[in-house]
Amino acid sequence: MSYATYFQENREQHLAELKEWLSIPSISALSEHKPDMLRAAEWLAATLTRAGLENVKVNETAGHPIVTADHLHAPGKPTVLVYGHYDVQPVDPLNLWETPPFEPTIRGDKLFARGATDDKGQVFLHIKAVEAILKQEGSLPVNIKFCIEGEEEISSANLPGFLEANSEALAADAVLISDTSLLERGKPAISTGLRGLCSLEIAINTANTDLHSGSFGGGVPNALHAMVELLATLHDRDGKVLVDGFYDDVLPLSEEMRAEFVKQDFNEQQLQSDLGLEALHGEEGYSFVERVGARPTLELNGVYGGFQGEGTKTVIPKEAHAKITCRLVADQNPQDVLDKIITHLEAVKPNGAKLTITPGEKARAFNIDPSGELLQKAADAYAAVYGTRALFTKDGGSIPIVEEFSRVIAPTVVLMGFGLPDENLHAPNEHFNLENFDKGMLTIVEFLNQV
Amino acid sequence: MSYATYFQENREQHLAELKEWLSIPSISALSEHKPDMLRAAEWLAATLTRAGLENVKVNETAGHPIVTADHLHAPGKPTVLVYGHYDVQPVDPLNLWETPPFEPTIRGDKLFARGATDDKGQVFLHIKAVEAILKQEGSLPVNIKFCIEGEEEISSANLPGFLEANSEALAADAVLISDTSLLERGKPAISTGLRGLCSLEIAINTANTDLHSGSFGGGVPNALHAMVELLATLHDRDGKVLVDGFYDDVLPLSEEMRAEFVKQDFNEQQLQSDLGLEALHGEEGYSFVERVGARPTLELNGVYGGFQGEGTKTVIPKEAHAKITCRLVADQNPQDVLDKIITHLEAVKPNGAKLTITPGEKARAFNIDPSGELLQKAADAYAAVYGTRALFTKDGGSIPIVEEFSRVIAPTVVLMGFGLPDENLHAPNEHFNLENFDKGMLTIVEFLNQV
Which residues in A lie closer than 8 A to residue B397 (C-beta atoms)? Predict the structure, then answer.
């Protein structure tokens, strides 16, 4: 039977399986979910085995396990390594979820759950595509390997070491990853660039105790005033980053790159209205897709200090905190950017404030030339299923490990995404559009058959 | 027997009673403590009755009850109305308390509990002083009234109406309040000024959902960036408030006032070291006591938005919040100051930010001439017990109702405080020094006998 018929006949069973996986709260950032991480990895291993993969292993690491498997029975054919992740983002604010994040629910044509699109849902497509070919044909047209980790949302601390230690076992001609998005419904895209990332936390301490704002207000430092004063030096009113040297290794946008961005025909009005925004916002002289695809950014992800409860508390807080991540592009070196930010913060440190800076994650940006053979074949596979050839884009997100894969495993990394940009990844009510669940499996089968 | 002996003999019993009161978590700001508020009021009423007061009533209000009592058997003598409050501040951060806030504990010569010094402990002194005179003499040298409220920490919403509705029943020649502090150990003070207060909350909303910082970072407004940008416009680096017209109704410091402040011989070095501060901080050209006693201030009491958990979350928050209180002096009108702040905030509103401002509490500053007879007698009473006459000071805190009392009940308001400035009021590990517990009761007895 045709693959379309096969997937249709097995659709209910496939969705039931995926829901089972999504119901495991595999939040890698929160230590209390360590047992759930193991359960999610073991679920994955069992499902790979049932699909017909071989050498399925749950590999322990210093953090969360990495699941590997392979099927190497196509001599003379290329080897494709599928990468993805089974860990998910935290879920707060929990009260904004319409249905609980770990009780997967289909509403309309969408599957709602934390991890539905980022990235369990997309990893699942590859397993079921391989299973389908094996069931229909008895063999695979390529050699295939899986390497699925549990620390992508916390910067893949243990994967680089694992790749280097197992570079022979994981050797491949290309790496295939589904952790990105279509441009919009019916408009597929292959990302040829991902932003890098670095993160840091700032703590400001003033007095050794919270103080009464009547007895002390106006005469002692207030940790929140100091934090606000410090953070306000980081951007101008347009969001341009004011840290000295921040843009040093950013390439100016060439006319060719600008032309490629224009091709996306991105509807800024629609985005603004979808997000309920009064206005889009960002560096002057750039469109939205340019700002997100080709410009670095420094975002405050969390700021807090003092009283947050109901009513008023006339307190001068003794401490304040900020969490920051930067998205990096082109040749920006994460360590160099962190050093520059730290130098900046120490130079503008407010009077009476004790400053503690804790650097966090680091990842370089990734870029690939779209004219390579496999990227062209991937675009063709989309064309066969979606009726529209995939565009080559630059994506604003970071998959910190992609640059590592391109260096250690294979220069060719195919970012074949099946999400949509409005699927609330990292936010309440994350979901996955089932249209791309269906077409995603067909596109992967098509691609593997063309490689 | 002497009053000193009487209080010594009853000390254990008195402390046991006070601990009982302090163990009731009468946090007026938190609605879940409404039953505790009633328990605390009823405990007070029972204790006033046992002390020999008459007409003891727990008066219902639209908020928390007001407890009144009197003893009017000294014809031809003045009437003194004692005001105080039985409500307390919230207790977070709870983990910083060495012993739980509502399990009163004596360590060394200090009684630790929320409300120990602000204000249950100080109200208690008046009850026990009156009880002592009645037990020792059988009658009181003055007519006395009590009016103890449960909403001081939330701006006394219902007391002004109560005073106005009951102005005859509460009529008095002077109002006596113990809710302030000695300057330092052994250095008593009578406050002749209190700062006023106004408060507001700011909410900033941007998108209708939290957004992924990879897919959107650099291209959409970030509620935290907007909040930081907004709040940073409120002060210069010294803490001077930059709101247009904020200082319009503030009197410049006269040479006489400056001389009075100098008399306090305040040790700024000591304060800095006690609070573990790198530096004191405030408007240029003013000493600490001038900044706190005679200058207004605008304090951030709480700021929050985005991710506050363990680890990293690459989110662009859709909302951010700030809680602000101002301390006001001289003729500053709280509503006028609020209006000016709101005008300022709306004028500097960042691009793409929806701004919601919720005004809160309002109270005028209070000032009294120290040369009046009763204030002089109060200073003498301290001299008799402490061996040092009380200094007349300006206090940085606000007791929003004092100005109301001086207008509705009696122009003479005697602020006879027995706290110490480092007793952590409004902070973890609030406590009351028992030296002033003992001397406080004696001073009140001395004062009532001299009136």
Answer: 212, 214-215
Q: Are A186 and A209 contained in the same domain? A: no
Mutate to test the interface with B, among A153, A213, A272, A361 (most CBs of B within 10 A): A213
Residue A199: pLDDT over 90? yes
β pairing state of A315-316 and A354-363: unpaired
Same domain, A110 and A172: yes
- A182 and A60 within one domain: yes
Residue among A178, A32, A184 at smallest CA distance from A119: A178
B209:A429 CB<8 A: yes
To the nearest whole number, what is the mean pLDDT of chain B? 95
Q: What is the mean pLDDT of residues B249-278?
A: 91
Mutation target among B151, B236, B272, B313 for the A interface, most CBs of A within 10 A: B313
d(CA A20, CA B104): 51
Rg (CA), chain B: 23
pLDDT per residue as tens digits for the range B124-159: 999 999 999 999 999 999 999 999 999 999 889 899
- Tell me which residue range forms the domain holding B147: 3-194+365-450
The pairing of strands B189-194 and A79-85 is: unpaired
Query: Between chains, do A300 and B222 touch, taking CB under 8 Å as contact?
Result: yes
Rounded to a whole number, what is the distance in Å from the CA of B427 to chain A's nearest CA?
A: 5
User: How does residue A43 score in pLDDT terms, banded at 50, 70 and 90?
Assistant: very high
Please give the average per-residue pLDDT across B419-433, as a whole number: 94
Residue range B328-337: average pLDDT? Answer: 94
Q: What angle do CA A236, A238, A240 make, to 5 degrees?
A: 60
CA-wise closest residue to B62 among B147, B198, B197, B154: B154
Same domain, A90 and A226: no
SS3 A123: helix
The answer to whether the beta carbons of residues A142 and A77 sit under 8 Å apart is yes
Q: Residue type for B384, please?
A: A
Q: Which pLDDT value is given to residue A165?
A: 97
pLDDT-derived band at A361 (thresholds 50, 70, 90) equals: confident
The CATH number that applies at residue B209 is 3.30.70.360
